[in-house]
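Researcher: Let's do a round of design. I'm pasting the structure tokens now; please hold your answer until I've finished.
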């Protein structure tokens, strides 16, 4: 009994030092209690495990590098004509034919127009549609290429400052995108505590599964414990056929039930897209990023455990 109490006190102190003081007592009790059955913890990834959204940033990275499969009709079939598809395709063809695409006079316009497409579609169709569509845009890329491009993007964005970039489109829209990412040290250490105390750590993210697998591995999460949005793969190449459920609200809970098969002991998330799986947890852990007061009202109303994310220790830039 004394050993168990000491263990709980040790975990409590570690959680406090990491910035979890709002929930450290209750969380330490859950982490250190005796285990008779399999227990799991499931965490969202973007803006929960990291600062910013690697899914969105990965798409910006592909745009910057002219790395989408622009040579395929199946890619352009996914771009709505209302978003200037035909003009954009001609622009890309001109850039790709030049000796130095990145110095082409149209390159900046290309980046602005490509980055605007997601924002326009989001306003028309909503988050669920856009989450699935963003993964479908990887059509034609091989799985090996996705892994390589993902690690390049992660390394590059870890070295960048956290900043907002703005682009002005031909329609006069000002498109803002967040660049740079940071690993949240406190979350990585929490995962180590969970693992050391017999709780499996899983990730459930709306970002494409190939990118999240690579990033989650840097947190010590095995690649086979990552759930993410994905498309059907044929001969190692991504198609545009989405595999349900889409990781959005109740889709996350459905995926957890299918892939993991047990009710999570702990679920961590930061937005309304995580509510479905947070409601499923014994210990819902909501990370308040300060982006929407309605989220906190919902969490408080449901007696969830709330942590202010900016209090958690973040790792410094690799740059």
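Researcher: That's everything. Go ahead.
Model: Designed sequence:
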């Amino acid at each position: 009994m004394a050993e168990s109490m000491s263990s709980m006190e040790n975990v409590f102190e570690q959680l406090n030092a990491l910035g979890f003081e709002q929930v450290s007592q209750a969380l330490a009790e859950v982490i250190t209690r005796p285990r008779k059955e399999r227990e799991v913890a499931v965490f969202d990834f973007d803006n929960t495990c990291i600062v910013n959204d690697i899914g969105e940033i990965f798409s910006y990275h592909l745009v910057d590098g002219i790395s989408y499969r622009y040579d395929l009709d199946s890619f352009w079939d996914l771009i709505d004509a209302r978003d200037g598809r035909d003009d954009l395709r001609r622009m890309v063809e001109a850039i790709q034919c030049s000796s130095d695409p990145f110095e082409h006079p149209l390159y900046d316009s290309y980046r602005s127009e490509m980055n605007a497409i997601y924002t326009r579609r989001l306003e028309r169709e909503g988050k669920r549609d856009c989450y699935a569509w963003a993964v479908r845009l990887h059509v034609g890329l091989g799985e090996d290429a996705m892994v390589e491009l993902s690690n390049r993007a992660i390394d590059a964005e870890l070295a960048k400052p956290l900043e907002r970039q703005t682009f002005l489109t031909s329609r006069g829209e000002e498109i803002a995108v967040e660049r740079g990412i940071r690993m949240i040290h406190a979350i990585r250490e929490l995962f180590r505590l969970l693992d050391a105390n017999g709780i499996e750590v899983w990730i459930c993210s709306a970002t494409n599964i190939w990118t999240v697998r690579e990033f989650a591995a840097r947190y010590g999460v095995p690649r086979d414990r990552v759930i993410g949005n994905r498309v059907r793969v044929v001969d190692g190449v991504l198609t545009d056929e989405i595999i349900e459920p889409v990781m959005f609200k109740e889709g996350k809970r459905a995926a957890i039930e299918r892939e993991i098969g047990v009710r999570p002991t702990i679920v961590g998330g930061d937005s309304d897209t995580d509510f479905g799986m947070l409601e499923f947890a014994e210990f819902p852990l909501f990370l308040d990023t300060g982006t929407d007061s309605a989220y906190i009202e919902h969490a408080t109303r449901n007696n969830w455990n709330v942590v202010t994310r900016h209090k958690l220790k973040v790792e410094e830039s690799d740059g």
